[in-house]
């Protein structure tokens, strides 16, 4: 982007120089024409005035175009001043990386708090269910002692409660196994990404080393060419 702007600026300078040349040529032409007209015998001033008016109009048009190009160059220079250089871009990149790391850390912390809240909420729900179940058993026990039929019915209710608790336990175990499987897959992906990251860092380091070697060899070649 910076190179394109510089190219446009250079081309604009070329156009301005061309317009300067045209304006200068017009002035020289006016002077030479006026000199010739003054040296020649004048029969009719009307033709001379018309010729001078045409030349003045040409000069005014050239000056107008030149001023427009000068304003365009000024605008282009202001735009180029707003384009950051390499040092500023590197500084922006470092700042964006810092902000990205900070946002990622804050996101992980928030996610951990949400997970803790959901876990504690589930624990509270199951504790409330357990308390309600024990309360219902405690309330139904005195009635079960009054007759064998009530006792048998109470035992059947306990069996149903036991089956319900086992089903709930199975669902929780299944959910836990799924979460463990997802965790294992994510750990494998993390290991793969970390390995790729280490390979990337090693490749970058090797590239920097080769670049330094290339620069040294280029300097040696330049030195040999100078000696020859």
From TrEMBL:
Hydrolase among the record's keywords?
no
Q: Which GO terms describe its biological process?
A: Golgi to plasma membrane transport
A Pfam family assignment: CCDC93_CC
Which residue range or ranges hold the CCDC93 coiled-coil domain? 39-220
Which residues span the membrane?
Answer: 6-30
The parts of the chain that form a coiled coil are: 169-227
Give the record's keywords alphabetically. Answer: Coiled coil, Membrane, Transmembrane, Transmembrane helix
Protein name (record):
Coiled-coil domain-containing protein 93
Species in which this protein is naturally found:
Sipha flava
């Amino acid at each position: 982007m910076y190179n394109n702007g510089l190219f446009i600026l250079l081309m604009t300078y070329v156009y301005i120089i061309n317009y300067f040349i045209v304006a200068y040529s017009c002035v020289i032409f006016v002077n030479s024409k006026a000199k010739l007209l003054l040296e020649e015998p004048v029969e009719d001033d009307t033709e001379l005035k018309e010729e001078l008016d045409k030349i003045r109009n040409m000069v005014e048009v050239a000056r107008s175009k030149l001023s427009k190009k000068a304003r365009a160059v000024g605008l282009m220079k202001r735009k180029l001043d707003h384009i950051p250089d390499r040092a500023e871009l590197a500084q922006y990149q470092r700042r964006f990386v810092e902000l990205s790391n900070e946002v990622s850390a804050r996101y992980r912390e928030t996610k951990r708090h949400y997970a803790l809240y959901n876990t504690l909420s589930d624990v509270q729900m199951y504790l409330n269910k357990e308390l309600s179940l024990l309360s219902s058993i405690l309330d139904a026990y005195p009635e079960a002692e009054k007759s064998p039929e009530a006792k048998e019915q109470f035992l059947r209710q306990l069996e149903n409660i036991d089956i319900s608790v086992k089903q709930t336990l199975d669902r929780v175990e299944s959910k836990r196994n799924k979460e463990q499987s997802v965790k294992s897959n994510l750990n494998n992906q993390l290991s793969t990404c970390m390995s790729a990251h280490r390979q990337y860092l090693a490749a970058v380091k090797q590239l920097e080393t080769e670049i330094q070697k290339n620069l040294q060899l280029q300097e040696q070649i330049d030195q040999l060419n100078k000696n020859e």
